[in-house]
């Protein structure tokens, strides 16, 4: 008898990677509940639905309709609305935290308080504001040349910005005022100079398996210029990245273990899924940027590509409480992913709706994201359309594979060309 698994998430390369892994194992019946249509995931699924994931009642009802053996959640907002809590009552295991613990990702002020309780040295100077007063202006002015302002909750559009106060003070104050009005709460932080690095750790609530460290490329343009995005690509290079030491890698793992210990002591002993930490590293000093409670995108594609075991086996170890028995799940090597967006993204809609042709791309390296497939040829939407992800024995090798495939794509597209070259 086949294991019935339901994937809940956005129409991204992450969900396509999940579906590929379950289909590859051959003994799973796949149900997919996605925010938008993804025909590549649909073709791998026995049951398929497109539902607005803001509608947690509809998502819950659809899961109950097929009664899976377990659910894998890829998207953060549906977790923050409590899908795990609802499914716990139905006796359906769900790889996601409860709504209470999803606040680690969903509320930046809540999370800052948690990390500060673990180790005050891990956080920059910060304050939380729920109304705009002169105290906001004074605190921003006290932070030096640069400041970071964050919306407290997970919302669409820009929610974290860095301001150079020499020429951006007016914009920083305006955004602070507007964001408090829109979101009700902001976090203002000092800027910490460093290089970004992340790890993703899988847990059954008791034990953790840590991924190799990886470098997310969030900025839209080469050289880490332009607006922050949800991620233009990820590089994973093995034990640790060139700018970091083994000790820093162990420190990141230790912080994640501290965080899981805090969760177990304060809230729940059966946290299931991912603790995905992002850090800033400057020599031997480290600060925590944030943690996500979901599988990352595009980093999940990189990590799945480097797994010795099928992703389905990892999911079932999380559900069964046997993560400690997984052993070594990572093979040596490098992986690189790169997302394609419309040329001009995110500043203009000029190429939204334009046709693209990726028919010459290797399907084994292709991961479908958010595109419009109505009326024949695929068309770009105002989002990340698809990703290419490859593995190899060196950075040069994976760059050659990824960019070799991207050169085959026809249409008004944009992608970072410097990934693997910039640290």
Question: TL;DR?
Answer:
By secondary structure, this protein is an alpha+beta fold. The protein has helices at 13-25, 39-43, 56-66, 76-80, 83-90, 103-106, 108-118, 134-141, 165-183, 246-266, 299-305, 311-320, 395-406, and strands at 3-9, 28-34, 47-50, 70-73, 94-95, 126-129, 146-151, 160-164, 186-190, 195-203, 208-210, 214-221, 225-236, 273-282, 285-292, 334-342, 366-368, 371-372, 379-380, 386-392, 413-414.
Structural class determined from secondary elements: alpha+beta
Query: From the 3D coordinates, which CATH architecture of one domain would you assign?
Result: 3-Layer(aba) Sandwich
CATH topology heading of one domain: Rossmann fold
The portion of residues forming beta strands comes to 25-35%
Q: Biggest β-sheet, characterized?
A: 6 strands, antiparallel
Q: Mean pLDDT across all residues, rounded?
A: 94
Low-confidence stretches: none
Please work out how many helical segments DSSP would assign.
13
Radius of gyration: 21 Å
